[in-house]
Amino acid sequence: MLQTTGNGDVIRVIASIYGIQTASKMLPLIAETKDFKISGYVAKPEVNRANRSYMTILLNHRYVKSYPVMKAIQAGFHTLLPIGKFPVTVLMIDVHPHLVDVNVHPSKLEVRLSKEQELQQLVTDAIKDVFAEETLIPRASEGTVRKQVSRDKSEQVPLAFDEETRLDESKSDRSEKKSGPDANPDYSEFASGREEPRSGESVRKETGKADTKKDVPFEEREERQATHVYEEGLPRQRERVPKLYPIGQHHGTYILAENESGLYLIDQHAAQERILYEYFREKVDDPPKTQQDLLVPLTIELTNQEHDVFIQHKNEIERMGMSVELFGQRSYLIRSVPVWFPDGDEEAILYEWLEQLKEGKRLSAGVIREEAAILMACKAAIKANRHLRSDEMERLLDDLRSCEDPFTCPHGRPVIIHYSTHDIERMFKRVM
Q: Are 55 and 86 within 8 A, CB to CB?
């Protein structure tokens, strides 16, 4: 049975349903246009679930299911969530009843909205605006060290009003049990308390140890920081990651860095993947010219079905910037491609386009360019087991601080994890 205080405080209701840990990670959201007003809470990306059941939508104070709105919510979390993970949100939408069609589903759960695209854009932009003001570095709490399951013990199951949702949730629970306790760790600041960590200088005084960075204080190091952003691209953004000072590497994969707030672990591949993704994204969005000729045209052979699809959609493929001409009965020559195509992937992309067209989907230049930027960043980023010099680590960290969203790679994996000085001292039982 669900029990709440009944005072109308939404965040307290969220705590009663999902637990205090999850509620402490929720961020308020509010936005409106002439036709729509939205409010509610969205959880930080580190709090996520294995299905869509935790995206709660209340339309004019009534629980509904709207897949376009869910799609807009996920778009607001773009590149912030791992593949196969979904956000925890409570979204309340106020709209004039004339803009709502409730006669879509027998149980009145699903609705159809007029001006749906306007609402989708409002939801996506509002979520992005919320995260643009936040530092989304997960904190490695005591729960992480003990390898506890991320879900709070006091958390109740999501409210399920139809059989489909209940079946979805039961499947999710089974999959989470199979994946083990490490599948989705929760880096909850709430679990480790809110005591402020001591500065690096005070720790050195108490332990009698000198700083390993040649006794240079943090304040002096701050004055030495350089701007290592790519000369051609990446403009300096408002820095959402604090200045970090590398002190070493773990297995040639993770950079260890420190500042007055504690210790940071940085996944070097994910970090450079994020840097390159934002760099390539700007390049493919504004290419100097639309097409480039291939030095040696590529020859491909299509099946009968692919050939029919190509003939039917030839003009659409050419509008996307790819020049293909017949070279036999079912053979074709790719002569030119958009300048932002990843090298060596021209043939694979054409086959993917034909598959999408075969399924009745439309080709979107924006989606294709986004996928191209992600693919190029992943291929070009430094890999694991690559040992970096001190200056290389410093440059990587400074470039990361200049990113628009420096907290996750384009696939949604975390880039940085923070151990506060207090967290570390608790692990070593220096404080209880």
A: yes
